[in-house]
Write a structure and sequence with these properties.
With 126 residues, the chain is α/β, with parallel strands linked by helices. The protein has one domain. It contains 4 helices and 6 strands. Strands 1-2-3-4-6-5 form a 6-stranded mixed β-sheet. A hairpin with a 3-residue loop joins strand 1 and strand 2. The longest helix is centred in the first third of the chain and has 16 residues. It starts with 11 loop residues before the first helix and ends with a helix. 21% of the residues are buried.
Length: 126
């Protein structure tokens, strides 16, 4: 059995206009925007699901080179989930650095000898 595929829209505006959601899920829109940006620069993009989930893994050649999480805001409600998913992927693919993209937060910390950078989307996405 394989993990189900994630589906992304080619246009956030079109997705928002056709959405039945009244909340306008900003986190999903930010994740979609991150995917579109990654897709412009990388051919092989995956997500990871083990015990936890990591939004994006980027493969270059035969090796996973980047692990990224995306959340609108890193807060006490989601911090453990976001970090644990990223760390699990980083450990599995032996990555020393990982990235969490948010709407506006900027931070950096080290956990289990691995560096996690938190950056606002405007800094990272073109």
């Amino acid at each position: 059995m394989v993990n189900p595929k994630k589906i992304y829209s080619i246009d956030n505006g079109l997705s928002h206009a056709n959405s039945a959601s009244f909340s306008g899920d900003k986190g999903k829109m930010l994740e979609n925007m991150a995917f579109l940006n990654l897709r412009k620069n990388f051919k092989e993009i995956f997500y990871f699901k083990g015990k936890n989930e990591c939004d994006f893994l980027v493969k270059e050649g035969a090796k996973i080179k980047h692990a990224l999480q995306v959340c609108y805001e890193l807060n006490e409600d989601n911090k453990a989930r976001e970090i644990n998913g990223l760390l699990e992927a980083m450990e599995k693919f032996n990555l020393k650095q990982g990235l969490i993209i948010t709407f506006g937060q900027d931070d950096e910390f080290e956990i289990k000898g691995r560096k996690i950078t938190v950056e606002p989307a405007w800094k990272r996405l073109e």
